[in-house]
Specification:
By secondary structure, the chain is of the alpha+beta class. It is 43% helix and 12% strand. It has one domain.
Length: 100
Amino acid sequence: MAFLSACETAKGDFNQPDQVVHLAAAMFFAGFKSVIATLWSMADADGPEIARSIYQNIFSSESDHIDPDDIAYALDEAVTKLRTVQPEPLRWAPYIHLGI
């Protein structure tokens, strides 16, 4: 899993439409089965909270294996938690999961 906790890691460049590969897609094409990225700028305070929630969720299981579906569900749960304290969509909606 790659967690790209930075602004606009899943945003292409509108000035160069032929080069639509953004950082998140590059990580996916490089072989990461799951990539968490952002579509626009995120609040500095939100990144660590989202990451903490995701990693706690993923590693709370006693299994040695992480199912790729678990990562998508962990992101959903983290965003839901953030949404309860930050209802403005600009705060919770930029986070996406790319993966299989």
